[in-house]
Amino acid sequence: MTTNYPIPPKAPNEIYTDSQWQAIYDQGTNLLVSASAGSGKTAVLVRRVIEKIKRQKLSVDQLLVVTFTEAAATEMKERVQTALQEAINEETDQELKNHFAHQLTLLPTANISTLHSFCSKVIQRFFYLIDLDPSYRMLTDDTEMILLKEDVWDELRETFYEENQEIFYRLTENFSNDRSDSGLEDLILSMYEFARANPNPFQWLDGLVENYRVKDLAVSELYQQSIRPQVLDKLHEIDQMYHWLISTSQGAEELQKITELGQNEQARIQQIEQELLADRLSDVFTLFKEFNFPTYPSPRKKEIKELYGDVIAEGKAYRDQAKKELLKIKEMYFAVSPEEQVERLQAALPIVEELVRVEKRFIEEYSAKKREKGMLDFNDLEHFTLQILQTEINGDRPAENYYRKRFAEILVDEYQDINQLQETVLRQLSREKPGNLFMVGDVKQSIYGFRLADPTLFIQKYHDFSEEHGGRRIILAENFRSRKEVLDFTNLIFTQLMDPTVGQIEYDEQAELINGFTNFPDTDTFAPELLIYQKDGDVPEWIEDKSMGEIFMTAMKIRQLIDQKFEIYDKEQKEMRAVRYEDIVLLIPTRSNNLTILEVFKQLGIPLAVNDTQNYFQSTELRIMIALLQIIDNPYQDIPLAAVLRSPIVGLQEEELAQIRLALPQKEYYQAVKRYLQDNENQTAKKLAAFMSQLNEWREFARRESLADLLVKIYNETAYLDYVLGMPAGQQRHANLLALIERAKDYERSSFRGLYQFIRFIEKMQEKDKDLGEPPIEETRDAVRVMTIHGSKGLEFPIVFLMDMSKSFNLQDTRRNYVFDERLGLGVKLLTPDTRIRQDTLLFQTVKQKNLNKLLSEEMRKLYVALTRAEQKLFLVGSYENEEATYKTWSKGALNEKIVLDAGLRSGQKDSFFDWVGLTLFRHPIMENYQKDYQINRLPSLKQHPAVFKLNFIEPQTIAEAVQTYLPAVKTLDIPQGAINIQSLKQRLSFKYPYPEATKTTSYQSVSELKRLYDDPDNQENIPLTPSQPNYRFTESELGEPKFLGTKKELSAAEIGTATHLVMQLLPLTEIPQRNTIENLIEELLLRQTLTSEIAEKISIDSILQFFDSPFGRYLVQHANHLYREEPFAMLLPADQLFSDYQNQDEILIHGIIDGYLEFDDKIILYDLKTDYYTPQKEQQLINRYRGQLYLYKDALEKAKQKPVEAVYLIFLRANQTINLLKTS
């Protein structure tokens, strides 16, 4: 389509590919960009935004950019800001310069955000259209949301019980068990999420009953649109298997019986197909019922077996697979007659109708409760926005028209992860002709099904737009992230695994990854490797299970990479270098093994950074603390009380707990504790008495004070915070305990109060197997990182270990009494009143099978995400019993005649990533040595496939030997035979270290610490650096007071100074900064939550403006291209230059951050900004305070740059005073 802005010709030196170029400039219709992993989609998005601003003179507020996360939105703004700043520097046209500069001022408030954030703006602008109170509070805390839903349901359930209707009792009974009615509650809450993900929840709920109103199954929508197509596809696959069976044996007279068996069973399959096409379901049921499988013929003559053994085995494999698939169809759809299927559906109809009625009431009551409390949740934002956009006044839709006129284009990132409701909102915002939606994503990376993302929305447009129905499709297939070895390996796997049946999209030539980064050096060390732990060897007792064996095997491999200085390519330095720990990432499917990883890696001396060790409330330290809160609330709880007494807080042993129990065996444990105290005065009783006194004090405190203050008091009095620091993952545990205080504060800011309610919330989370994420801890050290596959999405790492690949997929969602689907609706099991047996309804089986395919498809896409995180080297870690068991599992697809493996091989409920990968690798020529014992179809496309890989089978004994090598050596002291020299021993024991002052300083000092040491203003060259007096303050044992223990409320000068430095660091210096530029920057930092409003208010904008109006400030702007700001440095100095009492030859590492310097060809000008209060009377005192610090900076720069520092400026911002220290006496 011709547009006003055709795609410009691409210059020869452009870095963008042709498809990227088209994605940047194409327009005039809706566009879908299918961007494979590592294809540069973010760069394309940013460039498209810039070109809209540049070529079309659009303003940034005429664009809506929707991102999946707030972090992505922030990154997008930062990239656009950088691109605009570069455009200003490069542009010669002053009008365009001014246009770009104006866009920078608009950027902080531009609509580059998540859809939720944008919806909030819509509501704030047009709330009056739907009579919504604009002073709502966002319900963002899971604590409050869950408790609120629980309370609404508890009240509503009581109302229904009081109505005393039999149908409600039947409903409750159908989804609950003998112990509780929580099953119905779980269903109501799950159903709420599904309903609210639809544009019209009540309409979706009403549609749930339609598939149960069936009279003739053969003409029903359920059968015609869902069951029949699925069964016909499966029968066609089975028919093909029999075709292969017959072709293997046909023509050989000795195998005539096998041929006849195949022909007979194939004929019956074809008969079933004909009856299905004619919709004669009773006949289909009869054919399935009468279908039997005779024993597979096996020739008895030895010579026939020797001659045709391989053919017989191949044919049997086809027949076994066909039999398995046919029985599966029978079990799902034809286990009972069509008439009985209809009866079950009709029997379930009143229960489903009642369920819909109850669900609607719940939605109404929950909405009313939120209105009453003046709250909205994220889902409300989207629904109210849709309602606003669809509201008509006099036949006009004012909000919809406003946004359709305002936005020239709507750009949507991660489009594969949106749901039906979000799609409808975007459709209402966008124009119909010409379309102005620009959607970017990769359906192969859609892994958020648990958030109800609907990848079929992307898939439908992918197919429609290929023929330009409603838009155009652009494919970005070039990968600029990974080595060719990683890409070929990934293509080999997914060419055989992914198709519309499992994966939901064809992995064809257009989907294959193409190598786009050709700068990696050629070397043969980067072939992906499979590390396979063999479980049946002689296993040391310290390898507790296969997971631990896999972890030891991984740790061993990492130590080898580090110790052997395995080289990777550094993209920044553009050269090969030795691998570091920080280059390595372990990707995990779940967090269940993280504590084991921590322990094993600690033993082998491998530094590890784990932000999410395990589920927050399931961590040991939190479980102990929750148990303590439970007994503070009510001590008459046996298990929590025993847990606390056994914990480090009290420290009783199991034998002591048993003795306490014997004091009063039949009563509550709390009563037994009190009796034990009455009857005993031993050491156990003393510990108990001390704890009981403390417990009573805490209980009294809890009645008066806040929950957060209670936790602070507990931490203070038990030293439990200090204790957990010594445990594995101590920093994370410490952070977890501190975060509990923040959780408590958040909870108490909600509409709920009290210790009991807080405990109730946690218990509900644990009951429902839900949890909160662990608080992140800052990790900047050189360490191996561990993260989930979901957490790694969008990231890339030089070396990736994909862990736990033998773990079976989690298909729990298909094992409940109900299943949901966005289109088919709700499938339920039916509890029969007489037999009390739950029967599958036909709809339940249909939805369950569809959900199984969706879950397996998502697992397949998770595998794709995991493999494509690797830049250079990929390790796949798993285990089998032994080598023979490995090949037996992997050879199941060896006879497959198509490149894509049969769906049955890819949809087993006990499958794992390793099973899938092995099936695809086994047919490759590299496996030739292992294929000799198996029949295999050697497909030409696989025979010539360029993928390379290695298999490493590792036995437990190999691991044991390696571990002994890597474990720290234990030094033993050989004591000579004969008498011990007592005098010598006394001398050793009374030995005094000759350099005691060295024990009072740390070998790592920051300049901000050392600046307090200097008092010699005349010592301008700073050699030696003389301290004013002995200083023993700068030791590692000296820790600041934790924030939560402090009472300080006012902002410190240091906090204000740090914030001012941040603004000075980030301020664009393309011209003299103006007030609005500084204000916009501060506002953006507030939006990013980099600054708090309290600190932002204290930043003196006037001082900053004053500085840039000074001669030196203007000089900085004029030479901004020579300017370096906030530059870190490190330098080794002899210890005796810093501390006069040092007598030895130790060195101390000095580190710091230089505020700024200008670097020219022949000189350097150094400056340091201070926000201190300045007066002429204090000038010399301030100079004395900072001279040593700045001379350290000067010394470091001169050594690093090999240039003289010509001037050292000390700048006092508030007083606008600039002093050159090199010209002061």
UniProtKB/TrEMBL annotation:
Pfam families noted in UniProt: PDDEXK_1, UvrD-helicase, UvrD_C
InterPro entries per record: AddA, DNA_helicase_UvrD-like_C, DNA_helicase_UvrD/REP, P-loop_NTPase, PDDEXK-like_dom_sf, PDDEXK_AddAB-type, Restrct_endonuc-II-like, UvrD-like_ATP-bd
GO molecular function: 3'-5' DNA helicase activity; 3'-5' exonuclease activity; ATP binding; double-stranded DNA binding
KW Heme (keyword) present: no
Top-rank taxon: Bacteria
GO biological process, one term: double-strand break repair via homologous recombination
Residues reported in the UniProt entry to bind ATP: 35-42
UniProt keyword Lipid metabolism, yes or no: no
Cofactor(s) listed in the protein's UniProt record: Mg(2+)
Cited Gene3D superfamilies: 3.90.320.10, P-loop containing nucleotide triphosphate hydrolases
The enzyme's E.C. designation: 3.1.-.-, 5.6.2.4
Domain (UvrD-like helicase ATP-binding) ranges: 14-483
Domain UvrD-like helicase C-terminal: 508-794
Reaction catalysed by this enzyme: ATP + H2O = ADP + phosphate + H(+); Couples ATP hydrolysis with the unwinding of duplex DNA by translocating in the 3'-5' direction
UniProt keywords, alphabetically: ATP-binding, DNA damage, DNA repair, DNA-binding, Exonuclease, Helicase, Hydrolase, Isomerase, Nuclease, Nucleotide-binding
GO cellular component: cytosol; DNA helicase complex
Assembly with partners or alone: Heterodimer of AddA and AddB/RexB.
Entry similarity comment: Belongs to the helicase family. AddA subfamily.
NCBIfam families in the record: addA_Gpos
Primary role: The heterodimer acts as both an ATP-dependent DNA helicase and an ATP-dependent, dual-direction single-stranded exonuclease. Recognizes the chi site generating a DNA molecule suitable for the initiation of homologous recombination. The AddA nuclease domain is required for chi fragment generation; this subunit has the helicase and 3' -> 5' nuclease activities.
HAMAP family with a match to the protein in the record: AddA (MF_01451)
Protein name, entry field: ATP-dependent helicase/nuclease subunit A
Organism: Enterococcus dongliensis
